[in-house]
Amino acid sequence: MCLAVPARIIELKGDEAIADVIGNRIQAKTTLVPDVKLGDIVLIHAGFAITVLDEEEAKKIWQLLADLDNFSKTNKRVSG
Amino acid sequence: MLERINEAYTQIARAQKTLGRTVNIMEVCGTHTVTIFRAGLRSALPEGLKLLSGPGCPVCITDQGYIDAILAFADRTDIIIATYGDMIRVPGRNGSLEQKTNRGNIKIILSAEDVLKLAKQNPDKKILFVAVGFETTAPATAVLANEALQQGIKNIAIFSNHKLVVPAMASLLTTKNHRIDAFICPGHVSVIIGCDAYLPIVEQFHKPCVVAGFEPMQIIDAISEICRQLAEDEPQLGSVYQAAVKPGGNETAKKIINDTFDISDGYWRGLGEIKKSTLKLKEKFSSLDAEKQLGVKFIPEEDLTGCCCGEVLCGLMDPPDCGLFATSCTPDSPVGPCMVSSEGACAAWFKYTRKKRQK
Question: Given CB atoms, is A61 within the 8 Å cutoff of chain B?
Answer without folding.
Answer: yes
